[in-house]
Structures are given as C-alpha cells and as structure tokens.
Amino acid sequence: MNIGIFSDTYYPQLNGVATSIRTLAHGLEKKGHNVYIFTPWDPRTPEMDEPNVFRIPSMPFLFLKNFRAGLLCPPHLSRKIHSLNLDIIHTQTEFSLGFLGKFISTTQGIPVVHTYHTMYEDYVHYIAGGHLITPEMAREFSKFFCNGTCDVIVPTKKTEDLLLSYGVTTPISIIPTGIDTSHFSKENFSEEEILELRHTLGLDSDTPVVLSVGRVAKEKSIDVVIKALPDLLQKIPAVRMVIVGEGPEKENLESLAKSLGVEKHIIFTGGKPWTEIGKYYQLGNVFCSASVTETQGLTFAEAMAAGVPVVAKNDPCINNIITHNVTGLLFEDQEKLSQLLYQVLTDESLQNRLSKAGMETMKKLSADSFCTYVESLYEKILQSGNRPEKVAGPIIPLVIGARAAKKITDYPRKLVENKFHYSHQLAKILPYLNKNK
C-alpha cells in the first residue's frame, strides 16, 4: 500500500503524537508498505531529514511555543502528492495538515482514516486564555472532523466513550499505540553511561530521583507532583525531581517550586532528542505523573518498558497497563502521592517487583501488534470499497489563507476579526471536506 500520513506535529517536536507516527511508519515500512509523512517545516529540522518526510511551509503557532501551523501546499509538493498514487490517507491531527489530508481525500477519492490523539476541551486555555474557544466549540469541532472520515482510531476505551458523547457516528476502532520496547531497555545503557549523565545534572550515583518525561504543559499536572515534594523531602532530604521536556508551563512551575522552597531540588533538562530519551528514563528511581488528560499514556508505557516503577493518578487511559500494586501504584488524591513516592523510593523489593511486572506488561504492547492492527484496518476499508466521491477542486489546496496568516502574525490584537476571515477562507473548502463522510 501507498500510505500518506498527515500531521501538524512530528519530529523534531517531542510528544506522543510524533512518537506514535514514527512507530507506525517504521512498522508499516517493515511490512513492505510505502509510507509518506506530510508535516509543517520546523526550524529545528535536521539538515538531512528522513527521505519519506515532506515539509509544508509553516509559521509559528501564535499560542503555543515550538509548534508550527502549515500554510500553503506549494505546487511542486502538490504534484508530488498526486504522483504517489496514495491508497489511503491517515490524518493524525485536526488542523492545517489534517484539513490538507481530507482535501486530498475528497479531490482524489482516497479513503481517509483519522487517529484522535488529543482531548481538545482540556486544551482551550491555550487560545486567548480560553476566552475565544470554549470546550463546547472544541467538542463540536472534534465531532465534525471525525464524522468526515471512514474510521477513527482511538488508543483507549476512555477516548471512544468521549467521542461517542460528542456525537461521533463514524466507526471507531480501539487500537492501543504500541511502543518499541527495545528502545527503552536497560540493557542499552551501561552503568558508566548513566552515572556520567547523572553527574552532568549534578546528581550522585545514589541520589533518589522522581522522574517526569513529556511536554511541560498545564494539562500534564506536573504541579501536583511538585506540591508533593515538601512532605517527601522531610522524609528523604536527598531526593530530586528531574523534569525532561519543554513547554509553556516551565516558568509557572519554577515559580511554584520557589514558593514551596523546593526549587533547589528540581532539575529542568529541557527537551531531548528521541535518540536520547531512553537513556534519560534510566535516571529515574520512580516515574510520576498526575495527568488525567491523556488519550494513550505513552510516557507511562515507556517508563514501564525502561523498568522504572510508575506512580500515577488513577485514570481510565492507563487502566489497560497499570493495575494498582501489580504493575504500578495509583493515587486518587494529593495527600496520598508523597506517601506512595516514599514507599517506592525506600522499599527495594517493591521497586524490583513493579519494575519486572512493568517490563513484562510492555512486551505485550508491542509496536508490531500495533502496526498489524492498523494495517488490517486499512485493508478492511480498501476491501469494502468505501471511498469518498471525487469532488473537483484546485490542484494547489488551501490550508490556511496566506493573508489571514499574515494578519494573525502582524496583528494579534485583531485575532477575533481574523478568526472570521480565516473561517471565510476555510468555508471555501468545507463542502469538499463534508463529502468525506
């Protein structure tokens, strides 16, 4: 099969969507398929990019640092897409590149599958502080986008229930995102290598480390873990929290840490390349997350594959991999968190039991199984003959009106007016997108 994956986020950005796409693309290529990834250009893109990745001209996303929004699909890339003879389109985000994928689907009659990664109602605070886009608007938009596809892939039952509550009527397939467990295996790293990394961060070989990996954002609830540190430090004064990742919440978390008097016990490493993430997991004596906005919980799975005991806020998205006191420890309220962290950090037999159980569980959530299920879904859709009716459209599809993009960049205070200008531009292609259902 010739498969086109369209996403507004991909490497060098570090997040669960990028990881999921890379895992899927590599797995499908191993099965003999041709996979082409279309994503916005990023200034951090390596000079030698992956040969199957095509970058769309982009601009910085106004409200979220380090994210990009696609602009116009240039003529040479438009011709390239047409020449690939795509059998199926797989959109991974709902914005500029997602609309580009759906546009191509309708103008070329190609079936489109969508993976719903993000619960947008929990992210509206990024857009003008939540005053411009409401949770209800986010729900309606998600319903609109998903109902314009042949099938929607979700990683958990929690996400399926969410979309059904929105009114999504398109078939929904639950396919947990697999991970390449070998990338995180302890055997990949020597004791000397980990010790050297610890020393570069000012950690001794025996410093107890509470680890956080992922985007440093409000919805990740890293503040909940930081608030547990004062009580934990009274019992284990040497403990440190290492936060690996980048994001807009760093300054707020630093201020919180200072107000609690724990700033000297927290280390922000910043974002790290994918090739190094496996090594950074080995810093942790315990991995901790209080996020309840996940759809797939990849960092939990990665920590378990790395053999790091997990303490997490109880949430349906991780029920398939974490059972309390078997493969990890779960907490319901803030008061219990420091107690559980102390328990893991001081009980070696508990550490070993949770570590071993976590690694065994992750062997069942393999990347190969994930790719096989997605491949089967593609084949099922193609065999059904369920294809969108071709609708005539311009050869060079509009992703975001260049004039609107310039206005948003130059005049942030006129955002509301520009929103309607953008809506007017987008309205020109919505008839094509609605034909996909």
Write the layout of secondary structure elements.
Elements: E1 2-6, H1 16-30, E2 34-40, E3 53-56, E4 58-60, E5 68-70, H2 75-83, E6 88-91, H3 96-108, E7 112-115, H4 135-146, E8 151-154, H5 157-166, E9 172-174, H6 191-200, E10 209-213, H7 222-226, H8 229-235, E11 240-244, H9 250-260, E12 266-270, H10 274-281, E13 286-289, H11 298-305, E14 310-313, E15 329-331, H12 334-346, H13 348-364, H14 367-384, H15 402-410, H16 415-427, H17 430-434
Parallel strand pairs: 1-2, 1-6, 2-3, 6-7, 7-8, 8-9, 10-11, 10-13, 11-12, 13-14, 14-15
Antiparallel strand pairs: 4-5
Helix pairs in contact: 1-14, 8-12, 11-13, 15-16
Describe this structure in words.
- This protein has about 425 residues and is an alpha/beta fold.
- The chain folds into 2 domains: about 1-180 and about 370-435, Glycogen Phosphorylase B (Rossmann fold), CATH 3.40.50; about 180-365, Rossmann fold (3-Layer(aba) Sandwich), CATH 3.40.50.2000.
- It has 17 helices and 15 strands.
- It has helices spanning about 15-30, 75-85, 95-110, 135-145, 155-165, 190-200, 220-225, 230-235, 250-260, 275-280, 300-305, 335-345, 350-365, 365-385, 400-410, 415-425, 430-435; strands at about 1-5, 35-40, 55, 60, 70, 90, 110-115, 150-155, 170-175, 210-215, 240-245, 265-270, 285-290, 310-315, 330.
- Strands 3-2-1-6-7-8-9 form a 7-stranded parallel β-sheet, sandwiched between helices. A 6-stranded parallel β-sheet has the order 12-11-10-13-14-15, with helices on both faces.
- Helix 1 crosses helix 14 (about 365-385) and helix 8 (about 230-235) packs parallel to helix 12.
- The longest helix has 18 residues, at about 365-385.
- The relative contact order is 0.14.
- Mean pLDDT is about 85; it is low at about 395-435.
